[in-house]
Amino acid sequence: MKKRGLNKVDLIFEKVDLREVLTVAYNMPQAEIIQKVLDSGLKGRGGAGFPTGLKWKYTAAEKDPDKYIVCNADEGEPGTFKDREILDRVAYKVYGGMVIAGKAVGAKTGIVYLRGEYKFLLPQLLAELDEFHRLIKEIGFDFSISYRMGSGAYICGEESALFESIEGFRGEPRNKPPYPTVSGVFGKPTSINNVETLVTALMVIKHGPESYSQLGTKDSRGSKVFSISGDTPTPGIFELELGMTVQAFVNEFGDGDTKAVQVGGASGFCVPRKRFEDTIIGFEGVPTGGSMKLFNSSRSMYNVLHNYLDFFAEESCGQCTPCRVGCQQLLKGVQKVKKGEVKSTYLTELIKLADTMKVASKCGLGQSVGNAFKTIVENFREEIIY
Amino acid sequence: MINLSINNQKISVEEGTTILDAARKLNINIPTLCNHPDLCVAGNCRVCVVEQTGARTLIAACAMPVAEGMDIHTNTLKVRNARKHIVELLLSEHRSDCTKCYRNQNCELQSLANEFAFGDTIFLDLVEDHPYVIDRSSPSFIKDDSKCIRCQRCVRTCTELQHISAIAVANKGMHQKISSFHDKPMSHVVCTNCGQCVNRCPTGALVEKTYIDQVWDAIYDPGKHVIVQTAPAVRVALGEDLGYDPGERVTGKMVTALRQLGFDSVLDTDFSADLTIMEEGTEFLTRLKKVLVDGDKNTALPMFTSCSPGWIKFIEHKYPELLNNLSTCKSPQQMFGALAKTYYAQKKNLDPSTIVSVSIMPCTAKKYEADRPEMRSSGYKDIDYVLTTRELVIMVKQAGIDFRNLEPSGFDSVMGESTGAAVIFGATGGVMEAALRTAYEIVTGREVPFKNLNITPVRGMEGIKEASIKIEDCVDDWKFLEGAELKVAIAHGLTNANKLMRLVRSGEASYHFIEIMACPGGCLGGGGQPIPTNAEVRKRRMNAIYSEDEHMEFRKSHDNPDVIAIYEEFLGQPNSERAHELLHTHYTEREAY
Fold first, then answer.
1. Which residues of B are catalytic?
2. Which of A9, A129, A263, B238 is the one with CA 20 to 30 A from B192?
3. Which CATH architecture has domain B2-75?
């Protein structure tokens, strides 16, 4: 596979004439919108990477006249802060993406579920929303959006836990199936999309799928907004074409002493220096919802891992055994290994446990705890033990 | 129909069937823990994970509906490894003091550990990391979070079956726990003490508060005269924990066993159930007369039964504005208790202070009821100790009694005689049926117009039942009821009770008489009954109860010779002043949260 260098892109934050794009969308048949998004190859930008066009297609196929578009703005992955920036700067494009999604699937109601910690953005978001509602009314759309606030639970970023939270229940993931496209919020067919996904879909309608799919690779089309933090001289938000290697990324953002990059946050993968060259950032390599954390040689990977495990032990909803107890065991396990209270070979048991969590947990949270654990322990075993 | 394959065996099942149920049809056992047939699917313990060919993760068999062409394997290496890990994880957060545990040898986690987690412990002990405090505040049960494995069966029970939510999930992650409102002790929250959670807890996290030792102490005390009464639902369930199938009646053996345990007199709650019918039936007819003839605005209809202490606490919390609708009759247990230290003492020439009155109940709320301050009308605590069916089993085992080979025997005299009407108190609809058998006869002078006295419309496991009975050709005293249509309703399980109460409160329902039992199925499905209790078991116990009724010499409460005798010798008439003093009570409004 061809390895790409780093290519900065300006799609998400690009100024657009919303009236113009939405008028085009308004006059476009439902099926055509879906086809364009399918053709673009766009995959969900929250991290899981489900093809957006398919999600819309499934929701559109449902007979129930009450459907919902939910915008997942519960950005909680450690090291991710791109949705905040998008909402701060181009909320109108998020709303635009929602109304297009609504048109595509046949939904009249949109809900933005906003991370509790982003409450400070709400006044400006609501002001912009009023303006947006006026605009789409003029164009002729029958669609309205409202806000629901999260309360700080990481798990509520998981789609079905998010629905439970909107409905006023404890934020706990549901059993699937049924999937949200069949039975989502309030038991209605729901297309739930990440903030960035909705903006990208809007841009696909504006520029056309052909132009969009020229960016990126076969498995990872387009560009993506990255939240870059850690040991870097240039932390912040950057939109980059997908398909670059970690090496190309580090060349641009590293401080010259990068020993590892955590791609995808606490639930993502740790890429050590020796793998920079052959690891692609994207669905064919290490997928990410945008979080990129760089670590230089001054950092203890034990502390990094401990921090993540501490986070998961707190933020598991506690519902299912592998996640609730597994997270505590991983955390306590590495602590004991570090203190020398159990043999270092205990790490092998913990890696097996991480494998169980990956296959037996109820939702994506528990299933992905093992990613960071395994990649850090396997690549930095000596830092964990000594 | 959906076609799939499980362990290479093909099967065709209806759409919507879970993999777990499909596997059961093939007699393939998939272990479960959080799953309970009475409750909604949780899919949270993950013990039932199985492998689906082509799927990235394992899937929970209890929560996954079948799909066409699925290829399921329940015993692969991947499944076994995960299952072992899951059981080990549960054990690591569970205080495994099995040999001291009340649920030892009747614990679902212990059974799973036997199968999957013998040998060396893999994981670190997490119990020590949590500041667990055992909640002993309820007189009915003990909540020990250190044994809780967060399966949430209790939470689902309390919410789905009982509409209480006394217990709920609090906090997340490592701090997640099953808690109460504001983390208050169970005695201080809206809890009915029904014990349905206790009955469904797979471990020893929720167990009844046991009074076995106190009862033994009383039995061994030569200065005490220890009497025991047994509720109708106990005799159709006790056998389950003593080697019999659900639904086998063991009344005679139970009586013999109680005698062998050393009780001085073995008596029957059925006697006071018959008494309840006399009192409650009379109260009901009096209420009807007050409302229909006298136009009394202060008399409330419909009248609600008051035998179920879980129900009483429920209405005190949730519908205090309807307390006047409750019959003032004490429950059979408490009527018995009040008479034991008065009438019985008199008859046997005993000093009531030397009597220790024990009752064997299918119920945990009865422990609470016995502790209510109103329940001292004999001048003493009317009932000293309440044991559940399960506790009686323990006593039988402790005493080394060979239950199966016991010679059956009959109850002792004075408050030992009973009728079929009393026996059916143990099933939902039973109190209503018993009341109708007597009330109809008082009003018309004839037996109820149902074949063999079996009032089938009030029987069965439907959540809310209704029936009406036309009153014709009344005797002179009750002519005002001529042509009236008496409408009754029955609910069991507090979720159903709540539905019915809403209708009553809003005026949408116009019943005259309503029977409510707090537990699904009535007392036969009580919180103190053998574990497991589920729909199939309840059905069998119900059949046993109706069969016991059919086999009784007397079928109507007013035919009970002991009841006739007590009115002649002691109480005078039903609802007499003395009856009111000893057999009736009052209720207390309680906070709604």
1. 280, 283, 307, 327, 366, 369, 374, 523
2. B238
3. Roll (3.10)
Which percentage of chain A shows pLDDT scores above 70?
Answer: 99
Q: Identify the architecture of domain B222-271+333-405 in CATH.
A: 3-Layer(aba) Sandwich (3.40)
The CA dihedral of B6, B8, B9, B14, to the nearest 10 degrees, is 40
Q: What is the pLDDT of residues B233-246, one digit of tens each?
A: 999 999 999 999 99
Q: Do B126 and A329 touch (CB under 8 A)?
A: yes
- The phi-psi region of residue B276 (left if phi > 0; otherwise alpha if psi is between -120 and 50; otherwise beta) is alpha
Find, in chain B, the residue whose alpha carbon is nearest to that of A314: B173
In Å, how far is B81's CA from the nearest CA of chain A?
8
Handedness of CA B348, B354, B359, B360 (dihedral sign): negative
A191-200 burial string, b = 16+ CB within 10 Å, else e?
bbbbbbbbbb
Provide the pairing of β-strand A223-230 with A190-194.
unpaired
The reply to whether ipTM tops 0.90 is yes
The CATH number of the domain holding residue A380 is 1.20.1440.230
Exposed/middle/buried for B426, CB within 10 Å: 0-12, 13-18, 19+?
buried
| Strand B225-230 with B355-361, pairing | parallel
Q: Does pLDDT of A33 surpass 60?
A: yes
| Alpha carbon of A213: minimum distance to chain B alpha carbons (Å) | 28
H helix runs in B243-388, sequence order: 251-261, 269-292, 309-318, 332-339, 345-348, 365-371
Torsion angles phi and psi, residue B71, rounded to 5: -120, 100
According to CATH, the topology of domain B117-208 is Alpha-Beta Plaits (3.30.70)
Provide the shortest C-alpha distance from residue A160 to chain B (in Å): 14
- Per residue in A208-260, pLDDT (tens digit) is 999 998 999 999 999 999 999 999 999 999 999 999 999 999 999 999 999 99
* Residue in chain B lying closest to A312 (CA): B173
At the topology level, CATH places domain B277-330+418-583 in Fe-only Hydrogenase (Larger Subunit); Chain L, domain 3 (3.40.950)
Which residue of A155, A327, A333 is in closest CB contact with B124?
Answer: A333
Q: Given this model, what pLDDT does residue A4 score?
A: 66
- Structural domain for A162, as ranges: 18-213
User: Mind listing the pLDDT tens digit for each residue in A106-149?
Assistant: 999 999 999 999 999 999 999 999 999 999 999 999 999 999 99
Backbone dihedral angles phi then psi of residue B532, each to the nearest 5 degrees: -85, 150
For residue A3, the model assigns a pLDDT of 55
Considering only the beta carbons, identify the residue of A177, A327, A328 that sits closest to B65. Answer: A177
**In a 10 Å sphere around its CB, with 0-12 CB exposed, 13-18 middle and 19+ buried, how is residue B573 labelled?**
exposed
C-alpha dihedral (B461, B465, B468, B469), degrees to nearest 10: 20
Using alpha carbons, select from A70, A320, A293 the residue that is nearest to residue A195.
A70
Gap between the Cα atoms of A98 and A4, Å rounded: 32
Measured between its terminal Cα atoms, the distance across chain A in Å is 38
Mean pLDDT per 10-residue segment, chain B (593 residues) = 97 97 98 97 97 97 97 97 97 96 96 91 96 96 98 98 96 96 95 98 98 98 98 97 96 98 97 97 95 91 97 98 97 98 97 98 98 96 98 98 97 92 97 96 94 95 95 93 94 98 94 98 98 97 96 96 96 96 97 85
**Chain A positions with Cβ closer than 8 Å to B:** 153, 155, 170, 172, 175, 177, 312-322, 324-329, 332-333, 336, 342, 349, 352-353, 355-356, 358-362, 367
Contact B150 A361 (CB under 8 A): no
Contact across the interface for B124 and A319, Cβ inside 8 Å: no
Provide the shortest C-alpha distance from residue A77 to chain B (in Å): 16
